[in-house]
Automatic annotation (TrEMBL), chains A, B:
ANTAR domain location: 356-417
Listed Gene3D superfamilies: Winged helix-like DNA-binding domain superfamily/Winged helix DNA-binding domain
Source species: Variovorax soli
Name of the protein in question: ANTAR domain-containing protein
Domain NIT: 30-285
InterPro entries: ANTAR (IPR005561), CheY-like_superfamily (IPR011006), Nitrate/nitrite_sensing (IPR013587), Nitrate/nitrite_sensing_bac (IPR010910), WH-like_DNA-bd_sf (IPR036388)
Length: 429, 429
């Protein structure tokens, strides 16, 4: 029985280890949220600076760069707190390689800013650079969500990832609309992209509401005053329903930008609340797991005093049925010696298996919400391998197909994957 | 660039850590295979001993118990080599809790043997005890397969689990047939169970062939001489096609037992080969990962000498498309300084992400083969929670339904799960 209990304790230690690691990645996700928000603002400000030939937003740009540097510092030190020397992390390899991917992007920021300052690139080029960096940061959040082993924490991380991704689509929509109004007209391709950004962000916020729980969902709804939503929809309609070629009121550019910015800034509040909830949940779970570990260790100490002759209790009919999944029973009642103690260990073992089983079932359900993105990534990989495309080209091709066929991106990705067997056996080299 | 490379190296370390852990669990799986084989023989011998009122197999039983004790010792020391103090294992919690479940079973073996020696239980009771213990050992192998993070190793572990499970069904079929022939008649219920055992083992061996690769598949086919298969099928037909009540030739009991035993002993050879392949694969993979880690570390040392000014290479169009998934490119060519070096780090990072993505896609495909068992477990859990059943009762109920409706166990499990929403909101307490 002693050795069984040691493994039971080992299992608990694994859970605690994972919770500790989750607390660190959750903190990291929080700092990434702040950095992404700062970079989204810098992207918007840089656009105006470039589009105005350097006449507008010079001071705001300096201020925003300073804010970005502070947020970047926090992200870098969260990265530093992940232990790459002695990693004990579920999908550590994937998380670390996403971080390795994004770090050169952070390193290259000063050079990007130098070029923006020198007007050495267009607003579109600057936007593309920020989009790429933010996508890299979101990929880190995605892996953190996908690697979580606790279903409740995973649930909040999935909500967080989707919220951040939705916010990024909202930021891209702001840039897209600002460019359209500023240029005084909209064309068909931009309208299509705009609609795609609206649809993608709505999908993300749906998933967020589904996974974040009622309190945050309510906060999200109340953070978007109806008047503001109506104003945004009116501006969307003016630009997107206008027949190509019809000119747009360039004055609306600022109105649009301000309207979007109010909405996006409100999102930042929700995101901070989510990050705080996540921290709290990690703390609570760790505390509970530690308390249970102590109880197990206490029992082990008792068993060491009274080793209890091995009996065939294992082979007898099992005791009363265990608690339903997800509802662990209280630890075995006292009266803890001899055969009774042995029984209580057997019951604990059985309860633990059922609890872990229930957790892993639930985890699977939660992770399914991440599958859409995985399908899209997989389809991109296929196109890259077989059509010699870069990642950007593959993504554009998928999006173009989705737009022209009026289907969702994930549906196109599924079609591409289902056609994989018709591709030549050997990819183009 | 330095920090990106450190995370790239951290990602590699994670992989190596996981491979080391996989090597340990693979070794454990090998020792479990030997113990299960020994216990299967002890189960058969104990049955004959009990059925013959202690007249037959007394010496064989002593010998077999000695063999079991040796195999048990090996399993226990493999358990001991898993580090429960500082676990670094993917699904460690689940693996450890399965081990915690099975250890009391091993502890209870001496008592079980004492009762067998004293004829204090029936052959059916002894069989049930051994079946329960073996099922616990197979559950450990299942978790080892489900927790593997390397798709090739996972593939072999899935093959191994299915082979071991198939072999166990074959062992149960031997016992079932031996009891039928020995009693001189077969009844409908036993015929049904017998057919279920045939179908289940065939399904397991199919999955084994699918995942073990052509060489082992060939070995498996050639290990089963046609004449022997024909003899087994003939005996199956005699017993299972006989109308209930018709008497069977009791002399066939020994013929049946020997025929099955030859087949099961041949299985042991395949299993040992699988275990050896698994060990070899783990060694090769670890060696390769370590060599790549060294190459990365060499590059990091070079970068430390020549830090290379941060440029905006990250934001430029990506270099030539990466290798197709699953085919990592060679490390970047030499000419390793300054911007060129930076590019090669970016390429390495990108290749690593794509490689990890491809690995995780493949892993998902391999693990899908384990889903059937998971569905059955989940359906059992549901029945236990809502119908106040023990695990055994739940399993019997599912199997009975499958038999009476002529459906596969997994199909019944799926139906049960799909009806979950019709169950009352609160399970019976």
């Amino acid at each position: 029985m002693n050795s069984a209990l040691s493994f039971l304790i080992g299992a608990r230690r694994c859970e605690i280890d994972e919770l500790d690691q989750l607390a660190r990645t959750s903190a990291l996700v929080g700092t990434i949220g702040t950095l992404v928000h700062a970079l989204q603002r810098e992207r918007g400000i840089s656009n105006v600076w470039l589009a105005s030939g350097g006449r507008r937003f010079a001071a705001q740009r300096e201020e925003q760069i300073a804010a970005c540097l502070r947020a970047e510092e926090a992200v870098r030190s969260s990265f530093g707190r992940l232990d790459t020397e002695a990693p004990r992390i579920g999908n550590g390899a994937r998380l670390f390689s996403r971080i390795a991917w994004v770090l050169p992007g952070l390193d290259a920021l000063p050079e990007l800013r130098r070029r923006v300052a020198a007007m050495a690139l267009s607003a579109a080029e600057a936007t593309a650079a920020f989009v790429k960096l933010i996508a890299g940061l979101l990929a880190v959040v995605f892996e953190a969500a996908d690697g979580a082993t606790d279903p409740e924490i995973s649930r909040l991380l999935v909500a967080m990832f989707n919220f951040m991704q939705g916010k990024e689509f909202a930021g891209q929509e702001r840039a897209c609309g600002a460019a359209a109004f500023a240029s005084g007209r909209n064309d068909g391709a931009r309208q299509q992209q705009w609609l795609h950004l609206i649809e993608s962000q709505e999908r993300c916020f749906q998933v967020f509401v589904e996974f974040s729980g009622p309190a945050l969902g309510e906060l999200w709804r109340s953070s978007q005053p109806t008047a503001q939503l109506a104003e945004q929809e009116r501006l969307r309609r003016i630009a997107c329903a206008a027949p190509p070629g019809v000119s747009l009121d360039t004055e609306l550019s600022q109105t649009w930008f301000d309207c979007c910015s109010r909405r996006i800034d409100a999102m930042q509040t929700i995101e901070e609340r989510l990050a705080a909830d996540l921290r709290l949940l990690c703390e609570q779970k760790t505390a509970r797991a530690r308390a249970e570990l102590q109880a197990h260790e206490g029992l082990l100490a008792e068993l060491a005093i009274e080793p209890g002759a091995a009996s065939a209790a294992f082979f007898d009919e099992p005791p009363a049925p265990v608690a339903p999944p997800g509802q662990p029973r209280a630890l075995a009642a006292p009266a803890p010696f001899g055969r009774q103690l042995e029984r209580s260990v057997l019951e604990m073992v059985q309860e633990q298996s059922h609890r872990l089983q229930a957790m892993s079932d639930e985890l699977e359900t939660v992770r399914a919400a991440l599958n859409e993105r995985k399908l899209v990534e997989r389809a991109k990989g296929l196109l890259m391998a077989y059509r010699r495309m870069s990642e950007e080209e593959a993504h554009k091709m998928l999006r173009r197909t989705a737009m022209s066929q009026g289907r969702r991106l994930v549906e196109v990705a599924e079609s591409v994957l289902s056609m994989a067997e018709y591709l030549p056996a050997d990819p183009v080299r």
